[in-house]
């Protein structure tokens, strides 16, 4: 069975909007009792999300780390944690082992290189038979 995939298309000039939306999605999924894996492009991007999850909202606590264990994991390699419910993809490619997840969130910036990469991911998921939803986010 293939996981549903939600595409969040950001229409903004705020370069931080993608990361803040990721934090909001993490918080919502965590409140729903899900385990979450956040896939990034690099160690630097993973470290940035790690810091942002501690600071983006003063009153929230999201137990996370850069590793392959825990309720909220941040990674950037092909090693994907076991037993995760939700994948939040912040990279420009489809991460390996997407079949391990119950739900997938793709966040796409509204700039041409990111839109093109998002189109490729959308096409891939569609060819694999995933149920796709698209949301336009204005910030």
Question: What would you say this structure looks like, in words?
Answer:
The protein has helices spanning 17-31, 43-55, 112-127; strands spanning 5-11, 36-39, 64-66, 72-75, 86-89, 103-109, 132-138. The chain is an alpha/beta fold and 139 residues long. It has a 7-stranded parallel sheet with strand order 3-4-2-5-6-1-7, with helices on both faces. The chain has one domain (6-138): Rossmann fold (3-Layer(aba) Sandwich). The protein is built from 3 helices and 7 strands.
Give the full name of the CATH homologous superfamily: DNA polymerase III subunit chi
First-last Cα distance: 34 Å
Principal-axis shape equals globular
Rg of Cα set: 14 Å
CATH top level is Alpha Beta
What is the percent of helical residues? 25-40%
Major beta sheet summary: 7 strands, parallel
How many domains, as an integer?
Answer: 1
Please tell me the overall pLDDT. 92
What structural class is derived from the secondary structure elements?
A: alpha/beta
- CATH topology call: Rossmann fold
Corresponding CATH architecture: 3-Layer(aba) Sandwich
Using DSSP, what is the number of strands? 7
Report the uncertain regions.
none
Provide the succession of SSEs. EHEHEEEEHE
Strand order of the largest sheet: 3-4-2-5-6-1-7
